[in-house]
User: Fold this.
Amino acid sequence: MSDLSVESAPSVRTRMRSERMQRLKRNKLLYLMIIPGLLFFIVFKYIPMYGLIISFQDYKPHLGITGSEWVGWMHFDRLFHDPMFWTIFKNTLLLFLLNILIFFPIPIILALMLNELRLEWFKRTVQTIVYIPHFMSWVIIVSISFVMLTQDGGIINDLLAYFGFTKINFLMSEDWFRPIYILQVIWREAGWGTIIYLAAMAAIDPQQYEAARMDGASRFRQVWHVTLPAIRSVIVVLLILKIGDVLELGFEHVYLLLNAMNREVAEIFDTYVYTAGLRQGQFSYSTAVGFFKSFVGLILVMMANWLSKKFGEEGVY
Amino acid sequence: MRNTKKWFLLLCVMALSLSVFAGCADSSNTGSNAPNSGNQGNSNNGGEANAGGNGEEASDDPVQIEIMLPMKEKEVPSDRLELLMEEMTNTELTFQWVPDGNYDEKLNAAYATNSMPQVVYMKNQSTFTQYKEAMRDGQFWEIGPYLEEFEGLSKLKESILNNTKVDGKIYTLYLGRPLARQGMIYRKDWADNLGIQEPANVDEVYEMFRAFTEDDPDQNGQDDTIGLTDRSDLIYGAFKTVTSWFNTPNNWGEKDGQLQPEFMFDEYFDAMDWMKQLHTNGYMNQEFPVTSKEDQRNLFYNGTAGVYIGSMQDVNTLYNETIKNFPDMEIDVAAFIDGPNGDFGMWTIPGYGNLIMFPKNTIETEEELRDILAFFDKQMTPELANLMFWGIEDEHYEVVDGKANAFADKADQNAREVKGYKDSLIGEPETNGRYDGYHDLAARVKAEELILEMDNHLILDPTAALDSATYSDSGIRLQQLINDATYKYILGDIDRAGFEQEVDNWRSQGGDQMIEEFNAAWQANQ
Assistant:
């Protein structure tokens, strides 16, 4: 028994290896084309990870990574005892949940609606119009909102005043920060997010719709029973990817909205890393904060992937 | 056929990977450039041991100097003056202009990656404080001992250099600025319309804000004016100046024989209450905590607001821009605003607007340092000082009564060609011998007189020359707690108890330690 396995295992392995070699040979050009992408990830994603070392050091630029003193978990310890930590953690997670619960379904709904449009030129026009905001920088979007929402002559507050309501302090209130944040995200990204869904919908076999119609399915039933199941795996993959960006809430966006009056709800990990690291020169500490953030992100992705496999979907790895 | 296709594909792949490599190579090149150019300057002059020394250039090769400095204009200044400066000083200058708004960020990034050039400007006092530890660590040249070798640099004022000392050593050159120049700039025509005299105490200022808001100062029959225009800056905006009017100490003050931060003094609350009332009654722009400097000034330019509190030297800009919209407008300044008990004082900066430091890892030898200091030494001669500060005579300015008058009709050209260098010149008129400014705007002449007069009423910061490890380490973060609380108090989001609670947070997060450290240093100094 044991003899057998000892004998057979290498032969199986060699066969597999030779098969793999053959496949490699056959598609060598395709594999060659991966190289630039691989290089990109190695150079810009993996090599920089070397810098994470400084989160365990008392990093002094002139001493460099090799010469700085090791301090173990000191910076993480400080982070978990930082009175701001739980505020930041809560703010980050809340914005993330808003992103998943409110923003994520919107491109799907929009794509479904666009998919149902019969006039081709109308559909294309609408599509183009909803894409455009994606190409605007956050600076512009936040500035436009600022001009519209300000109490000193902003159009929305002027309208409120005209109809006899009291003016609302949108820009400097803790209550309005999150709604404004998510509305801006929706305005900028919803249209762009439809692209992949629309592509997935275009790939659905029209015969399925014909069959559904024959069975007397209404438009809504067709959407429910044909379109949605067909794009389900796309939705799941995109959801996992979205969760991967969990804590990438857009530094620029939040930083622009942040001010003294809403810091309690608006300070997130990204803005905190910026203030602590670049503005105050605490390089090791801010690296530790960033490291922790990425770690949480990794755990969430793994959880989402595991869940999706549990439910019989494919997952991203 | 198949072969050509193959080769084509292969070529594509190679081109792609090459472009990736090229990208990497590029970035690594620029990264190593800075130290290289430094070494070149060094090897050129390394042979001549007597180079520098008395500040004279012995060699004919121009000295290469790379300088990183903040830029207050939106565009990089033209190199016109730069070329003239190089000719005058036998140098090859490379300026790295960094927008003022994110200068500290760029500075820290350069430091973290060891890519500081030979000469770095600090931006302001708080950035300087952050680098104290690095100075103690020997990261920057201690230039104190070299200053007396240079005729010009030895003229720099000792009292101001003292404010820049770290453990009694001088590491920096300074850019001199008047000690106190804060005051109020207001629409004289509005005041005249309402029969208001120049205010002399806080109640009169308050009354002016009220009248400017409620009594239709522009007489257009509409309720469209406010008193004060302010911005999201508690220091160079209105607030710190107001605290001075209420006789609050400058950052730190003495109470019960101990140094305490300004916000533990009752006067600080009086000032906040005063601002709060202005805000509640609508006598100032409601969203000042999110107002930019530009928006703040626009409210003045477009005739919405009648008072600006800040540097009185801004009166020219405010006048020039506002008169475009209101040809009949008049402007005036006021500085001596007494507090509730009749005393006047004004907070002061430590006499410098910016500091210059010399990193050791890019300046490797004393000779090289001397060569670079020689360049700054020439900035202390009238020829170079005037060129940098005023530009080219008869093109950017003219000399009237021994003073320089910048051509007003060439304001744009001046901003493009001169402003950047003007903001980077070391010393002050008394020491570098540049012309004083000639002003024909009456309000500006008055402002300059008031600034001189205020020198006798300064509220000094007792901690300016003191040290606290906690302050260098987390001073900015802790100050943010107080700044946020101050805004919230003025806007009525928190009351005195809420503010006290933030002060308690400040204390427990390092404030108590800071108080202790400053007091220890203070006792030791006395």
User: Anything to note?
Assistant: The two ends of chain A are 36 Å apart (CA to CA).
